[in-house]
Amino acid sequence: MSYIKRHPVHSLRNTLVFLSCLLAAKMPAQQSFNLELPDIQITANRVLRGDGDTYGLGDWKSTFTVALDGTILKVDGTISFTEKANDFTTIVGEYHQRIEVRALERCRHCQVSLGETTGAVSGPNIGARGYRWFGGQGLVRWAKIQTDVFGEDVGNIGGTIQFVPIRILVDCSIASND
Q: What single-letter DSSP state applies at residue 109?
């Protein structure tokens, strides 16, 4: 049996490689998960211009953004209906919600980023014909919107917004078991 003498630097290097592999296996550096947002209701309830009735003329648009503040996901949106004739009525509304993301509570030493953070949906005012589905873009999957009613539109137009899942990427430099 032969004995091969190794230089101490080779042993140290092999030990460091082994320890780094062991630590990497114990501490996942990057993970991601999807967060499903609930459907929300948004209503145009404030007149900016005109008489408060769009008379089935014009367009509408709704936009949404999400942002992360620690473990709180901020969801903010607007909706506006504009009349293209008569007195050019404009009716708007806002939506604000704060959602606690408990999965991020253990990520004090992590960098967190969001996938898609904006979305929009829009379409023509189709008159007082009830609710209709409109396809969205980005963060917004669909919207079921009533664009007009008979009589006063303020507080009576708007609808349901559905979102795509939000991808959350967590990059942890230090794992924490607290």
A: T
Q: Residues 150, 83: contact at Cβ < 8 Å? A: no
**DSSP H helix total and E strand total for the chain:** 1, 13
The tens digit of pLDDT for each residue in 133-154 reads 999 999 999 999 999 999 899 9
| H helix or E strand, kind and range, residue 16 | helix 8-26
Q: What is the per-residue pLDDT across 73-94, written as a single tens digit (0 to 9) for each?
A: 999 999 999 999 888 999 999 9
Q: Residue ranges per domain, the chain?
A: 36-172
Whether the pTM exceeds 0.70: the reply is: yes
Please give the torsion angle defined by the CA atoms of residues 108, 109, 115 and 120, in that order, rounded to the nearest 10 degrees. Answer: 40
